[in-house]
Amino acid sequence: MNTNSQPIVSLIDAAVGHGKEPVLAGINLFLHPGEFVYLIGETGSGKSTLLKTLYADLPLIAGEAHVAGYALHRLKRKQIPYLRRQLGIIFQDFQLLPDRTVYDNLLFVLRATGWKEKKHINERIERVLSSVAMLDKAKKMPHQLSGGEQQRVSVARALLNEPKLIIADEPTGNLDPDTSEEIILLIRELVKSDRSVLMATHDYNIIMKFPAPTLRCQAGKVISVLKPTL
Ligand SMILES: Nc1ncnc2c1ncn2[C@@H]1O[C@H](COP(=O)(O)OP(=O)(O)OP(=O)(O)O)[C@@H](O)[C@H]1O
Description:
With 230 residues, the protein is α/β, with parallel strands linked by helices. It is built from seven helices and ten strands.
């Protein structure tokens, strides 16, 4: 069997929200390996709610959902760290630990996900930092970096455990237009035959410049759009 033909994300008649009342319902969504998909919609339309449900920060309210081989509709709390290991998550505000260096930020994640051997840890950190051209900044503290550099580090952090799915929630929200383009190019490069990217954005210029299949959260539904307008 070619496992690449299996979707990395599949939602069937799913509902997401913060309590019992759904923000989005009747969601049918499939994301296959190698796909890069935008998630758009007005402020408060449910983009973050959907993404948080995919990484099990919020429980699924109804329906079925599979993410990277985990069934969210019957996920046990103790399985959440294993699900998260299959995912790379990139946030608008970078979320680097402010009290330690770039290297130690990455080290923290590897240790927390069970990496023990110093040599392997070092090799992995060097590899991901090189892939975002930040190896020379490994000893810097986050506050010594520009916003774009901090976001590069958080892209590197997302890559540490070779995730199947990258979830990016407004990754360019705090960046100027040129730096935003740089980061999007970097994130688009992460799409591989066994990996996909789902990216929430408000950035119309980015969508126009780098077109890709687009889903819109609107009036409690997720719909596929052909000509995105924000
Ligand atoms: N922690 C929370 N508790 C209860 N309701 C929430 C919570 N966070 C968000 N909501 C509500 O859920 C709805 C969807 O919010 P969400 O943050 O998913 O929207 P969004 O599309 O990501 O918006 P933005 O583009 O501003 O980030 C909104 O009505 C919001 O008020």
